[in-house]
Amino acid sequence: MITNEHVEKFVEQARRYGKERWMLCSSGDLSWRIGNEMLVSGTGSWLRDLKKDKVAICRMMDRQCINGVKPSMEFDFHAGVYRNRQDVNVVLHFQSEFATAVACMKNKPTNFNVVAEIPCKLGRTIPILPSMRPGSSALAKAVVDAMVNHDAVLLASHGQVVCGRDFDDVFEKAAFFEFACRIIVLSGGNYDVLTEAEIDELEYYKFCRGGDM
């Protein structure tokens, strides 16, 4: 059962994300799975100064809100990710400056592995989804399907979604996603990416030798 302490922690973490300027005003949304229920930032709320009365508590089984707060319009893909990923407990949808600039490029990069942290933290590939109406069932389905096997997706002309096991995991993934996109934008497209052999070596170091990447 979700307690007042859970809500307070959720508010604290939402404000932590908001301070990073990863979303403007009411853009972006955050959710946290707790057992068979989930906390979701409410429609129109600003994560940087989220209040407890703007946090929706929803049941996972039937996706019904049980505290009278209307959840974010992107609630469906948050719930869908949790249904498919038992390893995921936090989902963040955001619009950070450089990653969103990449999302709006005509010629978007197909490889984001400019630094070792990307394949190590977010995976070797980051899917790019076509432009779809925010809050639509089509967008929700596309995000849910893409995140079955990925921890991050780029939404064309929209933003990004990352998921992870806890708040620190998601914070780290969002930070490195934005860092990689900053490199891509500031390089003017003139950048190198890690080779598959180099990524294989990183995987060996990380998983076989106990390295901390």
UniProtKB/TrEMBL annotation:
<dbReference type="GO" id="GO:0019323">
    <property type="term" value="P:pentose catabolic process"/>
</dbReference>
<dbReference type="GO" id="GO:0005829">
    <property type="term" value="C:cytosol"/>
</dbReference>
<dbReference type="GO" id="GO:0046872">
    <property type="term" value="F:metal ion binding"/>
</dbReference>
<feature type="domain" description="Class II aldolase/adducin N-terminal">
    <location>
        <begin position="8"/>
        <end position="185"/>
    </location>
</feature>
<dbReference type="InterPro" id="IPR001303">
    <property type="entry name" value="Aldolase_II/adducin_N"/>
</dbReference>
<dbReference type="GO" id="GO:0016832">
    <property type="term" value="F:aldehyde-lyase activity"/>
</dbReference>
<protein>
    <submittedName>
        <fullName>Ribulose-5-phosphate 4-epimerase/Fuculose-1-phosphate aldolase</fullName>
    </submittedName>
</protein>
<keyword id="KW-0456">Lyase</keyword>
<keyword id="KW-0479">Metal-binding</keyword>
<dbReference type="InterPro" id="IPR050197">
    <property type="entry name" value="Aldolase_class_II_sugar_metab"/>
</dbReference>
<dbReference type="Pfam" id="PF00596">
    <property type="entry name" value="Aldolase_II"/>
</dbReference>
<dbReference type="InterPro" id="IPR036409">
    <property type="entry name" value="Aldolase_II/adducin_N_sf"/>
</dbReference>
